[in-house]
Design goal:
This protein is mostly helical and 527 residues long. It is 77% helix and 0% strand. The chain contains 21 helices and no strands. It has helices at residues 2-6, 19-53, 59-84, 86-105, 110-138, 141-144, 148-173, 177-180, 182-196, 210-229, 239-259, 275-304, 310-315, 318-338, 343-360, 368-385, 388-395, 402-447, 456-460, 464-497, 510-523. The two termini are 20 Å apart. Keywords: Cell membrane, Membrane, Transmembrane, Transmembrane helix, Transport. This is DHA2 family efflux MFS transporter permease subunit. It is a multi-pass membrane protein.
Length: 527
């Protein structure tokens, strides 16, 4: 029957996928949306939350607790899926995320909110990993490119819609609904996955590597705290930061040593023997470094220098996100039809280097059109890289390691974003404060003493001379941040050049493709 269908060219490619597979993919995209939207919605609601609960001095921990728990649990969820079955691990992570969301919405003080956000983050660590690993199980790598546009679309929608949705919910329903909104979406995803997704069950007799989990958790937690606190809560050369660096490095060295001895390692080191997997981890780290830095400082530049409102600054990211979406769709289709992918990491990295350098040239006189063109160049580069890195990484390992491959790639991107925000932030803040001292004198230096970022209301109250000084300072700060990003992106370009184009699994004659396409149908039950 499969051979007969494969011989009929009149049947559209998309219709060959069983409807039940498409239902699962829709549920996976909803879950991916939950993972990406959360911090953006909550970030918009934070001023209201602080006004209601108090505890301004603990504000940063609302985000830090979530980020720490997510980063530390990511590799563990991947390993649990490999050992005991992807579906059970994924659904458990969704349930924990929803419990954390409900509890966060019911928090009565800042301490409770921080604790509940940590619970939410534990679940969030398994969301993106589960999505990527299940897609890796359901769809052969050769066919997976077709769905890149869908994933890039969800990402773009989350980045643009997050602040808008967060503001609307907070203004009309109250900040607690910025957490409660996760519940109906999560229930829909859980119901669809429970009813339709049927992956082979696994029962591993091996014990969980608790020592490996502990060492990795301590190491990742220390690194994230260094990048979060360094230059803000504590000076980079302070005793606390040095202690955290020492603990982090020691824990990670111990972790690597222990993984060579453990019966069932959390991150089996043999996956790094694959040159492509290691290179994709490097490129993923750099992509996270660049992407989150760009999405953080571009809106700040647009609001402070170009005079955009908070809402419009989100919409002004459309050139970058739109270019990313279109390129990701094209890259996916080309990869699916040809089985070739080498050009995309190289081209994407090169465009990212050029685009970030162009962004570093922006000053107080740069028009929105010009900055939009520069952003589009960065978006084109990201579109070539965002999903291809995961695709090539998954194609480089055996099916039994799909979970740890997905979680490791996700972890490197997460760590890259932490480093990007911290290092770009340190450069930005120092440059803004220096320029304000030069142009604004004592008044300028005092104005940015506590924070180098002023909101729109504070900026509107400044005298013209100080406002102009601040605009030059922000322009100079973004120049330093994006120039650093451009230099760092060169590492991704060098790594991309050494990628070896290995045939994608599932590639081959159409008859073989038809046989491989039958596998997803066997894993799901017709709706």
């Amino acid at each position: 029957m499969a051979d007969t269908q494969a011989a009929e060219p009149a049947v559209p490619e998309d219709e060959k996928q069983p409807r039940s597979v498409r239902v699962v993919l829709l549920a996976l995209m909803i879950t991916m949306m939950l993972a990406m939207l959360d911090n953006m919605i909550v970030g918009t609601a934070m001023p209201t939350i602080v006004g209601d609960l108090g505890g301004l001095e603990h504000l940063a921990w609302v985000v830090t607790a979530y980020t720490l728990a997510t980063a530390a649990s990511t590799p563990v969820w991947g390993k649990l899926g490999d050992m005991y079955g992807r579906k059970g691990a994924f659904m458990t992570s969704i349930v924990i995320f929803l419990i954390g969301s409900a509890l966060s919405g019911m928090a009565q003080d800042m301490t409770q909110l921080i604790g509940f956000r940590a619970v939410q983050g534990l679940g969030a660590g398994g969301l993106m990993v589960g999505v990527m690993a299940i897609i890796g199980d359901l769809i052969p790598p050769r066919e997976r490119g077709k769905y890149q546009g869908m994933m890039a679309g969800v990402m773009a929608l989350a980045m643009i819609g997050g602040p808008l949705v967060g503001g609307t919910i907070t203004d009309n329903w109250g900040w607690r609904w910025s957490f409660y909104i996760n519940l109906p979406l999560g229930v829909v995803a859980l119901t669809a996955i429970s009813a339709v997704l049927h992956l082979p069950k696994k029962r591993s007799k091996a014990r969980i590597d608790y020592l490996g989990v502990a060492l990795l958790t301590v190491g990742i937690t220390s690194i994230v705290l260094v990048t979060t606190w360094g230059g803000t809560e504590y000076a980079w050369t302070s005793t606390r930061i040095m202690e955290l660096i020492g603990i982090g490095v020691t824990s990670l060295i111990g972790f690597v040593f222990w993984q060579t001895k453990a019966a069932e390692p959390v991150v089996p080191l043999h996956i790094f023997r694959s040159r492509n997997f290691t290179l994709m981890s490097v490129i993923g780290f750099i992509t996270g470094f660049v992407m989150f830095g760009a999405t953080l400082y571009l809106p700040l530049y647009q609001q402070s220098v170009q005079g955009a409102s908070a809402t419009n600054s989100g919409l002004l990211l459309l050139p970058m996100l739109g270019a990313m979406l279109v390129t990701s769709m094209v890259a996916g289709r080309v990869t699916t039809s040809s089985g070739r992918y080498y050009v995309f990491p190289v081209l994407g990295s090169a465009l990212m280097v050029v685009g970030l350098y162009l962004l570093s040239l922006m000053d107080t006189g740069t028009s929105r059109f010009t900055s939009g063109v520069f952003m589009a160049v960065v978006g084109l580069g990201m579109g070539c890289l965002m999903q291809i890195t995961m695709l090539v990484a998954q194609n480089s390992v055996e099916m039994k390691d799909m979970g740890v491959a997905s979680s490791s790639t996700t972890l490197f991107r997460t760590l890259g974003s932490s480093f990007g925000v911290a290092i770009m932030g340190a450069l930005f803040n120092n440059r803004v404060q220096d320029v304000m001292a030069e142009r604004g004198g004592a008044a300028g230096a005092k104005m940015t003493e506590q924070s180098a970022q002023l909101d729109a209301a504070s900026l509107a109250k400044l005298p013209d001379a100080l406002r102009e000084a601040y605009q030059h300072a922000v322009s100079s700060g973004t120049h330093s941040a994006f120039l650093l990003g451009s230099v760092v992106a060169v590492i991704a370009l060098v790594a991309a050049v050494f990628v070896k184009e290995v045939p994608l699994k599932g590639a081959g004659p159409k008859a073989q493709d038809a046989e491989s396409a039958a596998a997803p149908a066997a894993m799901v039950e017709a709706v």
